[in-house]
Design brief:
381 residues; alpha/beta; Rossmann fold; 2 domains
Length: 381
């Protein structure tokens, strides 16, 4: 694999849309979000269709998004789990929960601004009178937000949605921090920037294979199906790794959360299928916030895998604080999927089958058009 990964001339031939730069821009993206969101003012109220919506401390937070646009909500939920007394729900479908009302903060995330599931959640949330905040680069969501004076964060254009992870995640922490009057770990955000700048020096494509942890782990995942295990507060990162393997590398990958997998999924390793060790490789995504119970659950799993001669990879962050761990793991795991796509000679950016599905659905059911038509009823004349 060295002749591929340590050959500077090969990258542009495979990575024709320059996914590499988008991953490596994560520290710069954080600096951009800081500049924008530190100037951001939450409105006291807005009026939609004659109904006044007060922006106050919410009773619950609901983030609506799909695919790469939903990851920020999962990360938000993990980061805030032990920090706030307000429940956080992530909706990855067409409708928000029935309890959404004027005391709910609904965060609508769609990079394109045209995701039909998210637009339908917007429609339901407008009817409920919820506090709304939008994160998007363009499209219907942007137009609705601007026409109705809904506060929003404008994501810079030019990214595949999954590569805009910083822009789709960090603004949620800022809006929650402002409405709940709590830090949400943002006091450490400048340290995250420095941490990621150091990380990218160590995993850059110029760093040779034997010294580059991202390249080393990419090689280990060649020609296998990764099964990823993690636990709160890193479960969102483990799940993102699975989706990045799907989209960047165009391979199957599976994610399970501990300790739940100990009550079901672990039994799969008792299969008498002879090719388990050739077919699968386990990836453990871990951090410093690992309870004694979780440590021993993983220790048991490691011994089981050794007995079965199943290889596993242990991936941890080096950071001493949660926000640093989260974004360090995001960047490192993204780079592992990037190098794996290069080894496989697959351009990481295009997702043709997803685009094909969207066109198929529009032709068959026209749901997006129906939602847009109903949204127009909320616009001022």
């Amino acid at each position: 694999m060295r002749e591929v990964l340590d050959n500077p001339s090969i990258y542009s031939k495979i990575d024709r849309n320059d996914m590499y730069s988008k991953i490596f821009n994560m520290p710069n993206d954080i600096e951009y979000v800081i500049r924008v969101m530190e100037r951001f003012e939450v409105p006291r109220s807005i009026t939609i269709g004659g109904r006044k919506i007060e922006y106050e401390r919410p009773d619950n937070i609901v983030l609506c998004g799909m695919g790469g646009s939903a990851i920020g909500g999962l990360i938000l939920k993990d980061i805030l789990w032990d920090l706030i007394d307000v429940p956080v729900e992530v909706v990855r479908e067409y409708t928000p929960p029935n309890y959404v009302d004027e005391r709910s903060l609904v965060i609508l995330v769609s990079y394109s601004g045209n995701t039909e599931e998210t637009l339908n959640c917007l429609l339901h949330s407008l009817k409920s009178g919820a506090m709304l905040f939008a994160i998007t680069s363009d499209g219907i969501l942007m137009k609705i937000a601007q026409r109705l004076s809904i506060p929003y964060y404008k994501v810079p254009k030019g990214y595949p949605p999954r590569a805009a992870i910083i822009h789709l995640t960090l603004p949620t922490l800022y809006i929650v921090s402002k409405l709940l009057n709590t830090s949400t770990h943002l006091e450490k955000i400048e340290d995250v920037v420095e941490l990621l700048k150091e990380l990218r020096r160590n995993i850059a494509k110029e760093v040779p294979l034997e010294e580059n942890i991202a390249k080393v782990n990419a090689v280990k995942l060649m020609d296998v199906i990764p099964i990823i295990y993690s636990y709160r507060p890193y479960r969102s990162i483990g799940y993102r790794f699975k989706t990045q393997l799907n989209e960047n590398c165009k391979i199957h990958a599976f994610f399970e959360e501990l300790p739940e997998m100990n009550h079901n999924g672990i039994m799969g390793w008792n299969s008498d299928v002879k090719y388990l060790k050739e077919l699968f490789k386990v990836v453990l995504v871990r951090g410093r916030l690992e309870s004694i119970e979780m440590y021993h659950r993983i220790a048991f799993l490691e011994e089981l895998l050794k007995e079965l001669d199943i290889e596993y990879i242990d991936i941890r962050s080096s950071s001493s604080f949660l926000l640093g761990e989260v974004f360090e793991l995001v960047m490192l795991l993204d780079m592992i999927t990037y190098y794996l796509s290069v080894i496989r000679k697959v351009d990481p950016t295009p997702v043709f089958t997803i685009e094909k599905l969207k066109k198929y659905l529009q032709e068959k059911v026209c749901t997006s058009s129906k939602i847009q038509a109903e949204l127009k009823s909320f616009l001022p004349l």
